[in-house]
Predict the structure.
Amino acid sequence: MVEPAPSAAPPTPVTPPNWTPITATTKRGFATASLALGVWGILVFWWYPLGLFLAATGLLLGLISVALGIRAGKQGEHLAAWGVVFSSVGIGLALGVYRFVQYAFEGSMTGTLFDQ
């Protein structure tokens, strides 16, 4: 007769060392700030130095948060990943509009684009 295998004990949750609600909130704040700065970078992308700076800061915070594996939100949503996406779009829009204005109105790189 074969004896049934003993059932395994349920795994015990392992908490990281020095994990307090304050450190958890601070880490989630990086991801949330990344998303907020990415959205603001998109909203003011036409305001060249400010929009680019906001989006670049959001991208930096988002990449740090993604690298550290920090999630935010009540259900553990990837706010940092969305922050990276929005920040990248904001940087692309800011640089694209800046280059368009540079080409169209200042005539650099193309010489006389709109000259008669």
Q: What stands out?
A: The chain has one domain: 25-106. The mean pLDDT is 80. The two ends are 99 Å apart (CA to CA).
